[in-house]
Structure prediction request, 549 residues.
Amino acid sequence: MTEPAISVTGVDRVFGKGRKQVVALTDVDLTVADGEFVALIGPSGCGKSTLLRLVADLDTATSGEIKVFGKGARQARLDQDYGIAFQQAGLLPWRTVAGNIELPLKIHGAAPALRKARVAELLELVGLTDFAKNHPDQLSGGMQQRVAIARALAESPRLLLMDEPFGALDEITRERMQNELVRICAETGAAVLFVTHSIPEAVFLSDRVVVMSPRPGRITGIVDVRADGLADHHDRTERARDQEGFFRAVAEVRALLHGGASTSSAGVEPAGVGVEER
Amino acid sequence: MAAVDTTVTRDTRARFPITEVRWSTVVAPLVLGALFLLSWELVVDRAEIEPFILPAPSAIWEQVTANTGNIVDGATVTGRNALIGMLAGAVLGVVGAAVAGSFRFVDQMAAPVVAALAVIPIVALAPVLYSMFGAAVNTGRIIVAGVSVAVPVYLNTLRGIRQVKAVHRELMTAYAAGPLQRIRSVTLPTATPYVFTGLRVASSLAVIAALIAEYFGGPIGGLGKSITSSAASSNYPLAWAYVFGSIVLGLLFYVVTLLVELWFSRHHQPA
Ligand SMILES: Nc1ncnc2c1ncn2[C@@H]1O[C@H](COP(=O)(O)OP(=O)(O)OP(=O)(O)O)[C@@H](O)[C@H]1O
Ligand SMILES: [Mg+2]
Prediction:
């Protein structure tokens, strides 16, 4: 039995002290299985980024436990068990596209020959082979984002953490990138925790969609997209966007976002159901 | 796979910003300069101003052409001091800023010292340095130039270091990068344009410092010494010719630094 990629138990995150206290997350439980694609969705300020940052060990939980592949979040970070992509591409403007993708490998002391081969592979994967020697300021937003994704994939992590990576893209580029991400995930078999504001994006990409609500940030429900009849996330094709199950899942997520499980119609699992344990 | 965006037609090659300078930006100041020289010549000629007050540009130019060799030699001596001082000061400023940027207490300790250095005219130290290192060597002048350069480079670099983006910082944390890797991969490259801004300011300071330091003593041969000795022997047009040489030297330092700055900053526009 493999360890889950992420296991979050009873996590709270409180910012500040006294009057100005902000409860960003309260009592969050979440498990992401190895190879599973889970999207986090919810209104602005509900703590999606905070949760992702806790998993990445860029921030520390006030209480509760976070395990990544059975290890503490800090150990997982030190062991480089995850790759990460932020909402801003966050490329280093003074490095070429190849240099940016190579960065994590270089920092971790990979041999030059190995780095070169890997970068070529990744460039091919994100379709930017012709732009290897360009600098980020010469690329479009979508291309920059693909470089960031290639960089996140550089060390073949078994877990990808992505915070609204397509947030700044137009609808057309966005759908294209989604298709590419599905393909990439199928090729790498990585588990993904994916923050987004877009319901269709969440449904199209994931196995499960985790719906959160603010003040205090918490999980209000989880929609298992596969239960609605969509294929496993890495077997998904563009056609999934037109399938009946897709619209059903979209409706379920929307119902959860507007008013929570109590008013939702049949087919929506309230929080806890569909989650491994409570 | 989906071949996306590979048919981009626009020219995506890096541009050296100097190639985009318009002609008018170059011509306008040249016209102004020519007008200035012309009126200078006319005023000196018509008002019959004595050469020891203000020689005419034509008289100065005569001396420049007659003494080109001496002026170039003087510029070489002064320029050498300024260059060595500038390089040493730049290294000192950058390394100092990198240390101050990494350790808060170093920054706090250094701040008042740097503020003091920034207001002291460093050349005032020249006589003291001559007695320290001996008046026969250029060491004192190099130190004066170096300190003059180190201060603006330090201040600008430190400001640049503070511009590191949160995303880049978090990326380095996510990669579990060590402190030196952080500095090398993110901090210094972010600060680079600021370092060069500092250097551009410092380049003229280096020449000025090296030149003025010569007024206070030390070995002969530099432009500063030549200016004072020509003036002392009442050869005013020649003194002005050496001043002309100093202006050219200062401009040379400035322009070279500016070109290096443009080259290094060509990819620093926010992506
Ligand atoms: N460093 C911080 N200090 C204080 N409060 C913070 C900090 N980071 C986040 N918060 C607060 O925590 C809450 C959740 O923030 P978070 O960034 O996780 O929201 P989000 O769901 O990612 O929102 P968005 O969709 O707009 O990105 C917000 O109320 C925010 O003000
Ligand atoms: Mg966020």
User: Anything to note?
Assistant: Chain B has one domain: 62-267. The interface with chain A takes residues 1-6, 8, 12-14, 165, 167-168, 170-177, 181, 185-186, 189, 192, 267-271 of chain B (CB under 8 Å). The pocket of adenosine-5'-triphosphate (ligand 1) is lined by residues A 15-16, 22, 24, 42, 44-50, 217 (CB under 6 Å). The longest helix of chain B spans residues 179-215.
